[in-house]
Design goal:
Elements (H helix, E strand, L loop, with lengths): L1 H4 L2 H19 L11 H12 L1
């Protein structure tokens, strides 16, 4: 197990994961997407009740 944790494959994967996680946090949009807005959710639930 220690050999795997010190292997180049694991270190490259871990580095890529860290870079990807930081990139996802930094590149998030400031506004929520329109598909998850409460107004659309409320109207769709009203139609479901009818």
């Amino acid at each position: 197990m220690m050999a795997f944790l010190k292997s180049e494959l694991f270190l490259r994967f871990l580095g890529g994961f860290a870079i990807g996680a930081v990139g996802m946090v930094m590149l998030q949009p400031d506004e929520q997407p329109i598909l998850s807005s409460p107004a659309i959710a409320a109207t769709s639930s009203d139609h479901a009740a009818l």
